[in-house]
Amino acid sequence: MNEKFQAITLRATGAEEIFKIEDIQTLWSGYGMIMRYGLKGGGDRHSVVIKHVRLPDQSEHPRGWNTDLSHQRKIRSYLVETAWYRHWAALCDNSCRIPHCLALESSADEFLMVLEDLDGSGFPIRKGSVSMAEMRVCLQWLANFHATFMGKDPAGLWPVGTYWHLDTRPDELAVLTDIPLKEASAIIDRKLSASPYQTFVHGDAKLANFCFSANGLQVAAVDFQYVGGGCGIKDVAYFVGSCLYEEDCERYEAVLLDWYFAQLKEALVKRQSPVDPVALEEDWRALYPVAWTDFHRFMKGWSPGHWKIHGYSERLAREVVAQLQGESP
After folding, report:
1. Of 59, 60, 203, 206, whose CB is crowded by the most CB atoms within 10 A?
2. What is the pLDDT of residue 233?
3. What pLDDT score does 57 carry?
4. CATH code assigned at 26
5. What number is the average pLDDT over the span 220-244?
6. Structural domain boundaries enclosing 103
7. Among residues 99, 42, 30, 104, which one has the least CA distance to residue 71?
8. Are 139 and 108 in the same domain?
9. pLDDT of residue 1
10. Chain-wide mean pLDDT for the chain?
């Protein structure tokens, strides 16, 4: 970090000194680093997590930034994440726990986010696989998140959240060889956007973005680069697909959806939402295979050999495409 950013971190934390503990993760395509820094003289806070985005040198890029959709999408995602922490994150309570943001700073080619270290706040566990009980905890987080932002206008965020949204992924659509799915992609997108029950979606609610408490009974979520508007069932389908292999996706579909909708109803009632949870469930439950197929469309264009492209996904996609084609005039 440069001296300016170090000074910002010291001021935000009230620490006398900061020191690097470790690199946590390199950002996608080498756009920077997520790091853990220790604090001296910072009171009760002993560490922070710093997300430092530094855009690559334009002169080294083979195609140039002006025509590079991937680069522009990434820049937008960091602007969205900054807007999320600045304007929206404070609405999340302990039922949809996220890291507190201590400082935000940006320049022409850099972004800095100084965040609470969730490891030090009781969420030190990351999981590569989960039990059904742990999946329920994550779905409970999603239900409360969706209830919190039900009906809100995603100002400053992606108008339509998720990193695989059709309008932001023309390259992957262009190379998609599944012609019926390709031809139905716009109809699928319109079907999801036409739901009368719009909220904010996390946009990348995979298992890797959930931090667990030591006993596995609580979670917090990170990575809000693709948060934006949409129907929450997109997060649910994506999360389930990130956790389960083919046979379990089908085996546990009903029980996981039952749990999610029970939690969503409870969360809406707690927040005194005017939304009818029964009507919402009917709408979103019907859209679950549509949301699954929407992500499947992206995966088949982006990585045709990926493990998530399996018989369950293919069957759902065929059924959804046939149904939507039958509905089209």
Report:
1. 203
2. 98
3. 62
4. 3.30.200.20
5. 97
6. 3-121
7. 30
8. no
9. 67
10. 92
Same domain, 179 and 68: no
Query: CA-CA distance, 311 to 100, in Å (whole number)?
Result: 41
Tell me, yes or no, whether 126 lies in a domain.
no
How many domains would you assign to the chain? 2
Q: Which two tokens stand for residue 22?
A: 């470790």
Q: Which of 58, 92, 121 is at the close of a domain? A: 121
